[in-house]
């Protein structure tokens, strides 16, 4: 056989190519914007106000590296599953299995965190209206089931829905910022903690804060999950992802400014819905309603995007027999990975109903972090196996290998940050992935068709 | 000759799904359920708390009030709670070994599988 030999793949029912750059932006920002509405503030709890801001910008740098690297690889490996498909073609089946699990766990835990926040938000508002002790669980269950149903019905409908509610949630942050700057708040902005107690844990707290700093942007790489459903992946994926990062950098900085100025850092470090709490402090009813809707929309959009991404990663693994092939089915009418969507619902429910928000978030962050670490050596291997010019790339990111090295350095610091305060969960998560890896390599891999794992029309990788 | 994987029965597929579910719940949810994992934040409430003693200025007091905390005693634990970042170097080394070891394990086993994939897709090098 020659190096260029490509056998004809059997015809199978594919996903619909209906998405444009706007949908890619909405998918990325829609999943992530919720990071401004909840979760990021735990970084303030781990290190103080200054640490929260430093974490915001360092994490921004991490995700800029992620977006640069991911745009090059994904615009070249344009297949459903995003990083999963990349790992399959560049590193090997076991790495792909792990990356698939990273994606599924990161997004499913994020979905659970969103549902918890919706329950908490409704409980808070009910308490403000004099109805204390609201049972949050029915709302958590309803949120997850309703969004799973929406995804079951079709990707275009669900992502168009995301586009609208994401835009609203973003505008709500801008309106809050402008209103506070123009003196709408009954309580003035106060940054005295920045000078009086700048680093309550010293510089160690700044590193520790990086753990939840990732939450500002976690999931932006989800834009790649829809590669097989994008009309023009080489153009839409880099454009949508980069636009998403810029949107989030702006939103994250505005969020830190408003919340740190209106909420004592000790409260902010524990708050379930910080932007809504900031609106409460202003005493302005319109802002409260706006940020209530913004929080509800952001969490809904995020959960919706998470179901979309997690199910596609699960679907891809089923289609490749990394998981039972039953999951690789596409709905004959709606053309969605319906079995994967339904299967992941109970896992999201278990964690949404039975685990605290910060710990669910930590599981999501850890899976994301493992995925970002993979991206660093994946980039080196990609350039080594197929040097520039050997295959057609949709986008070539500049300054290689600097982004990969910076990403690796920040990933290392973030593992240490998680270790500070949440070390047990880090070890639990690693145990999960190590056992799953051994299970795959020594059992599940026998069901995998070797040659089918390489579907791109590329030449033989160098060194193999 | 291309590798022909065995067909997996429906029962086998169900067993595999159950294994993954048990692994997910066992490794991730069980430690949380048993209280073995979580944040190490410890409150250190002061006696007879006042806003001044808790280090809260007038603006911050107004903020606490807007958030529903009009009595300093109600915010005492939240304001004084701190993480304990003391750690043992042994635990840190275990973590580093676990993270690095995990990636080495996965990449090495993946490389072995990847060679099979490439050999089947492109043929053996020496042919």
Quick overview:
The complex is a heterodimer of chains A (about 475) and B (about 130). Chain A has about 475 residues and is an all-alpha fold.
Can you offer a commentary on this structure?
The complex is a heterodimer of chains A (464) and B (127). Chain A is mostly helical and 464 residues long. Chain A has one domain (22-453): Amino acid/polyamine transporter I, CATH 1.20.1740. Chain A has 17 helices and no strands. Chain A has helices spanning 21-32, 34-37, 42-47, 49-76, 83-90, 93-128, 137-153, 155-181, 192-196, 202-213, 233-262, 265-268, 274-282, 285-319, 338-354, 357-385, 402-442. Chain B is mostly helical and 127 residues long. Chain B has 3 domains: 1-38; 41-86, no CATH class; 87-127. Helices cover 60% and strands 3% of the residues of chain B. Chain B contains 4 helices and 2 strands. In chain B, strands 1-2 form a two-stranded antiparallel ribbon. The longest helix of chain B is centred in the last third of the chain and has 34 residues, at 89-122. The radius of gyration of chain B is 28 Å and the shape is elongated. The two termini of chain B are 13 Å apart. The model of chain B has no long low-confidence stretch (mean pLDDT 90). Chains A and B meet through α6, α9, α10, α13 and α15 of A and α1, α2, α3, β2 and α4 of B.
Number of individual domains of chain A: 1
Share of residues in helices of chain A:
55-70%
Question: In one word, what is the shape of chain A?
Answer: globular
Q: For the residues shown, what is the average pLDDT of chain B?
A: 90
Strand content of chain B: under 5%
Low-confidence stretches of chain A: 1-11
* Share in helix of chain B: 55-70%
The largest sheet of chain B, given as strand count, sense and whether it forms a barrel, is: 2 strands, antiparallel
From the N-terminal CA to the C-terminal CA of chain A, the straight-line distance is: 14 Å
CATH homology superfamily of chain A: Amino acid/polyamine transporter I
By secondary-structure content and strand pairing, the structural class of chain B works out as: mainly alpha
Please give the alpha-carbon distance between the first and last residues of chain B: 13 Å
Q: What about the largest sheet of chain A?
A: none
- The radius of gyration of chain A is 22 Å
Strand order of the largest sheet of chain B: 1-2
Helix-strand string of chain B: HEHHEH
Count of discrete structural domains of chain B: 3
What's the total number of strands of chain B? 2
Share of β-strand residues of chain A? under 5%
Tell me the structural class of chain A: mainly alpha
Task: Compute the CA-based radius of gyration of chain B.
Answer: 28 Å
């Amino acid at each position: 056989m020659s190096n260029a030999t490509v056998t004809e793949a059997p015809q199978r029912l594919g996903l619909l190519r209906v998405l444009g750059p706007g949908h890619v932006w909405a998918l990325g920002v829609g999943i992530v914007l919720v990071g401004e509405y909840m979760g990021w503030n735990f970084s303030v709890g781990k290190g103080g106000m200054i640490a929260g801001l430093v974490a915001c910008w360092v994490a921004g740098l991490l995700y800029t590296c992620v977006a640069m690297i991911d745009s090059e690889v994904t615009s070249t490996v344009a297949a459903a599953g995003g990083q999963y498909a990349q790992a399959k073609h560049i590193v090997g089946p076991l790495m792909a299995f792990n990356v698939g699990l990273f994606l599924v766990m990161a997004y499913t835990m994020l979905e659970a965190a969103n549902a918890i926040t919706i329950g908490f938000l409704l409980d808070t508002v009910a308490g403000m209206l004099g109805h204390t002790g609201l049972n949050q669980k029915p709302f958590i269950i309803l949120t997850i089931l309703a969004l799973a149903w929406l995804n079951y019905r079709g990707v275009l409908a669900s992502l168009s829905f995301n586009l609208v509610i994401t835009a609203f949630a973003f505008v709500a942050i801008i309106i809050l910022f402008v209103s506070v700057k123009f003196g709408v708040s009954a309580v003035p902005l106060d940054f005295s903690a920045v000078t009086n107690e700048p680093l309550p844990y010293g510089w160690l707290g700044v590193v520790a804060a990086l753990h939840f700093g990732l939450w500002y942007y976690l999931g932006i790489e989800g834009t790649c999950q829809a590669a097989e459903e994008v009309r023009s992946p080489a153009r839409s994926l880099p454009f949508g992802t980069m636009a998403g990062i810029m949107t989030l950098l702006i939103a994250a900085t505005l969020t830190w400014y408003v919340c740190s100025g209106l909420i004592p850092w000790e409260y902010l470090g524990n708050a379930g819905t910080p932007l809504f709490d900031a609106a409460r402090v202003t005493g302005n009813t319109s802002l409260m309603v706006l940020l209530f809707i913004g929080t509800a929309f952001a969490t809904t959009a995020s959960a919706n995007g998470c179901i979309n991404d997690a199910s596609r990663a699960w679907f891809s693994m089923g289609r490749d027999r990394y998981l039972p092939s039953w999951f690789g089915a596409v709905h004959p009418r709606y053309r969605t990975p319906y079995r994967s969507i339904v299967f992941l619902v109970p896992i999201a429910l278990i964690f949404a109903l039975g685990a605290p928000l910060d710990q669910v978030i930590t599981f999501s962050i850890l899976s994301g972090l493992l995925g970002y670490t993979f991206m660093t050596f994946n980039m080196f291997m990609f350039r080594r196996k197929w040097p520039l010019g050997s295959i057609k790339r949709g986008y070539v990111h500049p300054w290689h290998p600097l982004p990969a090295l910076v990403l690796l350095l920040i990933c290392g610091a973030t593992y240490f940050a998680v270790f500070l305060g949440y070390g047990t969960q880090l070890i639990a998560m690693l145990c999960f992935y190590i056992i799953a890896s051994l299970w795959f390599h020594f059992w599940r891999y026998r069901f995998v068709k070797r040659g089918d794992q390489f579907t791109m029309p590329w030449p033989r990788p160098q060194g193999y | 000759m291309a590798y022909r994987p065995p067909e997996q029965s429906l029962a086998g597929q169900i067993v595999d799904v159950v294994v993954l579910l048990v692994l997910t719940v066992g490794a991730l949810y069980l430690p949380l359920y048993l209280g073995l994992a979580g944040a190490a934040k410890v409150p250190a409430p002061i006696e007879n708390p006042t806003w001044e003693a808790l280090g809260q200025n007038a603006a911050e007091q107004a903020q606490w009030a807007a958030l529903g905390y009009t009595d300093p005693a109600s915010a005492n634990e939240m304001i004084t709670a701190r993480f304990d970042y003391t750690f043992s170097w042994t635990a840190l080394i275990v973590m580093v070994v676990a993270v690095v070891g995990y990636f080495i394990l996965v990449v090495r086993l993946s490389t072995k599988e990847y060679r099979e994939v490439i050999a089947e897709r492109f043929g053996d090098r020496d042919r």
